[in-house]
Amino acid sequence: MKRSPRTPGSSKKKAASRNQAPALSTPDIEKLRGLANSCHTPTQFKTLLDQLKRHIPYERFICGWGNPATFAISFFYAKNYPEEFLNWYLTTGMLEKDPVFNRWLRTGQPQIFAEVVNDLGDRFPLDFIKKTNEFSLVSRQLSSVG
User: Fold this and answer.
1) What residues form DSSP beta bridges with 65?
2) pLDDT tens for each residue of 43-76
3) Exposed site from 31, 65, 91, 142, fewest CB < 10 Å?
4) Which is nearest to 128 in space by CA: 120, 21, 44?
5) 3-state secondary structure the chain
6) CA distances (Å), origin 113, targets 18, 48, 120, 121
7) Is the pTM of this model over 0.70?
């Protein structure tokens, strides 16, 4: 049996390409937003996260689910997220200062942290900016100036 020549790293590249999630198209994003809008139970929320995982192969992830009419988050889902950050966030009253949470309350629509950072990065509280940078929780450093 004749073996084909291999270049260094070729098997790693093939394995990496098999692990990549398909790119999100506009219809996929709209479908995910629709699923998010129709979440009324923790089970539906988990279904949404399972669908999301197919498109976004996250290493660490946190999200909340709740009812904007009651100004409350009912359920948090975190995977490989720094527990110290989450405890700080929830015990310091940061939730009510968070632009992502406030936009969700105002619009009643699902929010994506990265989109809110791009839109309102200069409106995040300084202590929030410091903590997210300390734990490297955003792809780009937040700053106190837009």
Assistant:
1) 75
2) 888 888 888 888 777 777 888 877 778 877 877 8
3) 91
4) 120
5) CCCCCCCCCHHHHHHHHHHCCCCCCHHHHHHHHHHHHCCCCHHHHHHHHHHHHHHCCCCCEEEEEEEHHHCEEEEEEEECCCHHHHHHHHHCCHHHHCHHHHHHHHHCCCCCHHHHHHHHHHHCCHHHHHHHHHCCCCCCCCCCCC
6) 27, 17, 10, 10
7) no
Which amino acid is located at 72 in the chain? A
What is the C-alpha R_g of the chain? 19
Tokens 């990065």 belong to: 121
Place of tokens 């992830």: 61
**In the structure encoding, which two tokens stand for residue 57, read together?**
């192969």
CA-based nearest residue to 43, from 70, 74, 68, 87 = 74
Provide the 10 A C-beta neighbour count for residue 61. 14
The token pair that represents 110 in the structure block = 């699902």
Q: What's residue 146's pLDDT?
A: 42
First to last CA, the chain: 62
Cβ atoms of residues 124 and 142 within 8 Å: yes
